[in-house]
Amino acid sequence: MPTGVPLEFSGLSKRFGTVAAVSDLTLTVEPGQVTGFLGPNGAGKTTTLRMLLGLTRPTSGQATFGGTAYSALPSPLTTVGASLEAASFHPGRSARNHLAVYARAAGLPKTAPDAALERVGLSAYANRRVGGYSLGMRQRLGLAFALLGDPGVLVLDEPINGLDPEGIKWIRLLLRGMAAEGRTVLISSHLLSEVQQTVDEVVIISHGSLVHRGELSSLDVSDSKQVQVNADDRDRLAEVIRSAGYEVSSLRSGVLVENAEAGEIGRLAFEAGIPLTALSQKRTGLEESFLTLVGEEGAL
Amino acid sequence: MSRPRTSVATAIASETTKLLTTRLWWVLAVIMAGYVALCAGGIAAILGGLGSAASGPQIPEAQLPLLVYSFATSVGYVFPVLLGALAVTSEFRFQSLTPTFLAIPRRGLVLTGKLVTLLVAGAAFGAIALAASMGVGAGILAAVGVDPLLGEPEVWAFVGRSILAMALWSAIGVGLGTLVPSQVAAIVIVLAFTQFVEPLLRLGASFTDWSAQVAQYLPGSASDALVGSSIYTAMSGGTGLVWWQGGLVLAAYALVTTVIGFFTSWRRDVS
């Protein structure tokens, strides 16, 4: 079983002319978990991954696989499997031949392309020319390329983009399974909601700089908690809650209470003898925290 | 499991698979064979058939077979150039350099593999073009009563030199593709230079001595020198280079363009 190695970024920077695409990125991505690499479009995610994979030269700093640069890996495809967003296929080549080209380059067994196509569910389309593939099938083929050498590290740029709901569920299980086997899994996305059920850790960048990293739950930092509540006698309900010292505002379907817990509001209504028709806790979601982090304010 | 290693051998295996798994090579080969057969057959019928009856410049009967067979290179050489150039530019066009460099991060190794693969492919194109020019040409010559000279060692030495020339032309295509990664631009340059610019230059240069000296280093002249016979040399009375010098000049074009292209495009950031 191939084991993962940590991905180590230290002081990684890339400038395109006067534009700093990535600035002084330092972090370690550990094996055994799925790490989400998040940020809005244009935040520098793809540039960072391209530097990690030796496709783009950093202006300064480095990115390594447990200390070894990609270009110095003795057997790249069996160490790292990568799939980048750009559709890198010759449209006139079949999926099997596409994979065979790179399996030969890496000196992999002749059975590797079919095994990889089997894993991503494309066996039935192996001989079809890639030019006729749908976006979802191209995503799967990209993943098949990443899995070709059964690597200990997976680096996937926007792997969920273009997949149907069934495909999203499938890739989620696949990635979680690979992390559970001790591999390093790094996936990028510009949508937190797209990966929040898949990742354990998040790394968030904005304008090329690291703005947050930690467990997924660390994003749930909302301190303003709201309760939405409703009753047939809505005016009396609002009166009772207001007199308990809460700030109350009126909604189309009920009353919104600021800085409250649902349990406490329920108790107030019960003691006042008001039958409730609705009671729910509203939280500022992960997505909102994410948007705050990557918003114009930038860093925390 | 022992860890597989990348090497020149795996790079060549990969590039060979690339070449053979799209339709480009056989489409080009079929067009080339048809074009060469048509030209060689046509000239064999005209020069051989008119023979003694014709007025105008006479080509000695003993030189006629080689002249006919040399259409394999004199009109066919553009096809290995296109094959080599497209093998490189399609990688840029379809962004397939990304998976290529992921599989083999040592880019010089990849380019070496491509160059070796395309040399072999160019030699194969040479064999196909010669089969077309000699198959049709010898048949027509024999039919009009000219000895096709197929038993002569001189003809088979010519065959070997022609195959070498086509291999080198394919390598020049690789060099051109790395120098000019834009596919459209590369195709335009190949067609404009081979079909228009160079023939005009060679014609124009033949009027003065010193320009003729320079023009013998043009790739087309060098190729004719290497092959030893062509419709151009038959018309203008030979080139100054001997065959191995012509081969070296062609090889130099291939090497210099590829090395410059390696530094200008091949080593750049891939996006």
From TrEMBL, chain A:
The record's Pfam families line, in alphabetical order, gives: ABC_tran
PROSITE patterns in the record: ABC_TRANSPORTER_2 (PS50893)
Q: Which residue ranges does the record assign to the ABC transporter domain?
A: 7-232
**Entries under CDD domains matching the protein:** ABC_BcrA_bacitracin_resist (cd03268)
| Entries under Gene3D superfamilies matching the protein | P-loop containing nucleotide triphosphate hydrolases
| Alphabetically ordered keywords of this record | ATP-binding, Nucleotide-binding, Transport
Give the top-rank taxon of the lineage listed in the UniProt record for this protein. Bacteria
A GO molecular function for this record? ATP binding
The entry sums up its family as follows: Belongs to the ABC transporter superfamily.
Q: What is this protein called?
A: ABC transporter ATP-binding protein
This chain's source organism reads: Herbiconiux moechotypicola
Highest classification ranks of the organism: Bacteria, Bacillati, Actinomycetota, Actinomycetes, Micrococcales
TrEMBL record, chain B:
Highest taxon in the source lineage: Bacteria
Segments traversing the membrane: 24-47, 67-88, 115-143, 155-177, 184-201, 242-263
Keywords of the record: Membrane, Transmembrane, Transmembrane helix
* Key word Glycosyltransferase present: no
Q: What is this protein called?
A: ABC transporter permease
Organism of derivation: Herbiconiux moechotypicola
Organismal lineage: Bacteria, Bacillati, Actinomycetota, Actinomycetes, Micrococcales
